[in-house]
Amino acid sequence: GQNIDQPTEMTATEGAIVQINCTYQTSGFNGLFWYQQHAGEAPTFLSYNVLDGLEEKGRFSSFLSRSKGYSYLLLKELQMKDSASYLCAASDSNYQLIWGAGTKLIIKP
Amino acid sequence: GAVVSQHPSRVICKSGTSVKIECRSLDFQATTMFWYRQFPKKSLMLMATSNEGSKATYEQGVEKDKFLINHASLTLSTLTVTSAHPEDSSFYICSARRLPESTEAFFGQGTRLTVV
Question: Which candidate in B5, B41, B43, B47 is best for mutational testing of the A interface (most A CBs within 10 A)?
Answer without folding.
Answer: B43
